[in-house]
Amino acid sequence: MRDNIRIVLVGDNGVGKSTLVTALIKETFIVNVQAVVPEVTIPPEVTPEKVTTHIIDTSSKSEDQDMLERELRKANVVCIVYAVDERSSFTQVHEYWLPLLRRQGVNLPVILVGNKVDMRDEDTGRATVLEDEVVPIMNEYREIEICVECSAKALLNVSELFYFAQKAVLHPTRPLYDARDHAMKPRCTEALVRIFRLCDMDGDSVLNDAELNEFQRKCFNTPLQQRELEGVKDIITASRPDGITSGGLNVEGFLYLHLLFIQRGRVETTWMVLRRFGYGDDLGLREDFLYPECDVPPDSCVELSPSGYAFLTEIFKRYDADGDSAFCAAELDNIFSLSPGIPWKHSKFPDSTVTNAAGNVTLEGWLAQWSMSTLLDHRTTLAYLAYFGFPGDVRDGINIIARHSSASLRRRKRGKQQRSVFLCYVVGARRVGKSSLIRAFSKKPFRSDYTPTARTTTTVNAVDVKGAEKYLVMQEFGPYDTSVLQSRRQLESCDLLVMVYDSNDSASFAYLADLRRNYSLDSLPMMFVATKSDLDYVEQRCDVPPDIYCRELLLNAPVHVSAKHGQLANVFQRMGTITRNPQSATPSVLLARPNRWSVARILGISALLGISAVSSFAAYHALRYWWSHIFTKPAYTPKRNEL
After folding, report:
1. What's the confidence (pLDDT) of residue 640?
2. Bridge partner residues of 499 (DSSP)
């Protein structure tokens, strides 16, 4: 909402523009005032709307035309003043002033001000004539918000005039209401219907007392007493009986209630509701509401938070009309009618996630799809959390988490927040079965017909890794493999490079070897997968066989799978295990480590040699002692007297 307003007063000379300004400031009528009073600034604390207000008086003299036009371009609202006792000044309103605003391209709210009402002679019938003439002018010029009759001399409706001018800027009627048709405009109706649906928590198309109170608390920070609730229902029942059902207020009654607010001059009430739900002056959802500032460091990624998952689960259950735990096309259309539409139309949704046998999106697939969307484009997730009515700040629905680094294991020990969504690039030559592998990942049936991948496709599913659920996002780029591998930014986003070759095509592994040789890929965790294991194995035309090639990189041997027969060898669980400990499959890390087996051998041999040396030394001294004291000692000869 604005924090300052510029009100510009225009009109013929002598109609009382300056006296209206001085009467507002001085709270008394001053007879002699200057022709044009200086700009007046009213601080926010003394205005009902708590905004700084600038009031600008103008001159209608021809020599001041340039100044007038400059002020009109800076204005937020224009008050056209005429004198009720001077008919020519009223005629000038529609013959000069209103056409002037249109010629200047000024599309602003206009307040018609009939001043000097104290001078009107009620017996002449002038009031009736003026009232009859104002209505067609307001119908012709829809920029006119309201007509106010006042008197600077009698201090009648002076402060009200400027209050209405403030309201015309902060709470304009034109976007909401068509005065000619006496009906709300379509965009206003559309916005209020959406708000009604968001507040209808149980999805029964009726706002019960609890839901009405929650709506009241959300918009006005105070609940309604039961007596007040019944009073609202009685007002609606009196004029619109079909707006109330036994359960509470339906959408027709909700719209009629706001129509009454507008028609009775309480348009600010409807605007408070609209703004609380994120709408701007154009009745579109505000950019700052859909896309709040959210800085993500380069070495981090974004995932749904527990509250984000809980909210999306609740939304799924609320809009699963038939209760079959799956979204059919009609149910998807219903929930996305709260927004501009399904954001994944170009990513083959719902084939991109888990569906049931009928092709309907399950809860597992719904959460997986949003997990993928958040990882790849968190701004879309923020916007759709807002569209769906996430309670509070939508940024609470996401977490910003550091990517894996060399300290990943230490972080895990310290209990730091761990990632649960990982991005896998699937690369390989044409016709090796990348698409079939990805379809098997999302539990889709095998297709025998070959369709080249013409554009990037993305699929997501959950895998169990040591009792923890992890989401893997698999991306296949078709003919754009090399352009992706050339992009440093895209490579930094990759958590696992899945290198796919056809075990029945002798040239397919060489394609992967060329990719690794031509691009800097050794810094990425990688895994080799051999497809079509149900067919005869053929020798790969490559300098080094695949298993030895992987062994030289200190990687596990290729995993042989058959998507056609569902023989997948837990390949996706293995992928999830690598994402848990990416260093275990990163060639640059593995090759940089010292050969632990060689070190062990050296240490073992050294130990054995040391033991042997000590043993030999001890044996030598023992033998020497034995020899010198046993074998070389002279024999004992008894003496004569001992005989």
Report:
1. 47
2. 427, 528
